[in-house]
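Sequence only, no structure available. Ideas?
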Amino acid sequence: MSKSLPAELELRCQQILSADQQGVALTKADYFWFLVVTVVVPAILIAVGVAL
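Reply:
I predicted one. Tokens follow.
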């Protein structure tokens, strides 16, 4: 593609890469709950669904 990105999109991409726009870092508790919600709960739901 020979066309460049629109100016507003380019600005937003640069803002995303900026360190001050990243927010706070995730904690161990955040990773724990992420694991629970994305792996443990679906595994339980699958096990219950198979058992029915």
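The first helix runs from residue 7 to 17.
Hope that gets you unstuck.
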